[in-house]
Amino acid sequence: MNESVKTKLYITRTDVLKDPEVFAGLYEILPEYRKKKVDKVKPEEEKKRSLAAGILLMRGLRDLGIDPYKPDFAEGPKGKPYLRSAGESAENSETDGSDRVFFNLSHSGDIAIALFSDIQSGCDVERIRQQSAEQLEKLANRFFSEEERRFLEGTGKDRPEAYAEQFTQVWTLKESYIKAMGDGLSIPLDSFTVIFESTTDKKRRLHNAFFEEFEIDSEYKISCCYLGRRKYAEIIEVDINQEC
Predict the structure, then answer these.
(1) What is the DSSP string of 11-50?
(2) Residue-wise pLDDT tens digits, 160-183
(3) Class of the 1-119+229-244 domain?
(4) pTM
């Protein structure tokens, strides 16, 4: 295990990027590999979120003593990127991987986050859904496990705000697990449950996943998932206006 890598969750607000000068200034300092990602995004709001996530990636790399313009990225078997360990290269991957650095990015609404850890992990931020309880119930019937649907039913559709909050909580937990695994949509969302207390089906219970939840804003839910052992992230709130 790489004891020098602490688990950190960087969080920033993206609303400052509505100022074209701020956006241009931050875009200018992005490494080329992040500029390409921003350039591929068409909707302006998504461009701002992608830019903010890139700035958080740079900040996290710097805090690790890594040059954000020359990171030694590699990809796992399922295509999820990570930072190579010492002595590891594209030609030589025969290391124990104990000092690899894993990272994950997410953004929604006016919030962007970046998670760094020494173990495989994933993060997700979501603005609390604005749909009606009936619409969210249809989504839950399609994507949630039986246990998760019962959890929502306990909240009650007659309390639409609480229902939407609980739905978003479950959604971010599930997304963080999918992202930690690096499997994308190849894992059916209803094939596992993040509501452990009432789980009787051992096939759906996640024995190797540990979750952490954050609420830094009443309009958003944030979840992190760690594979293999429990971790506790240090929260670092970043003013990206100061990152220029």
Answers:
(1) EEE-GGGGSHHHHHHHHHHS-HHHHHHHHH--SHHHHHHH
(2) 999 999 999 999 999 999 999 997
(3) alpha beta
(4) 0.91
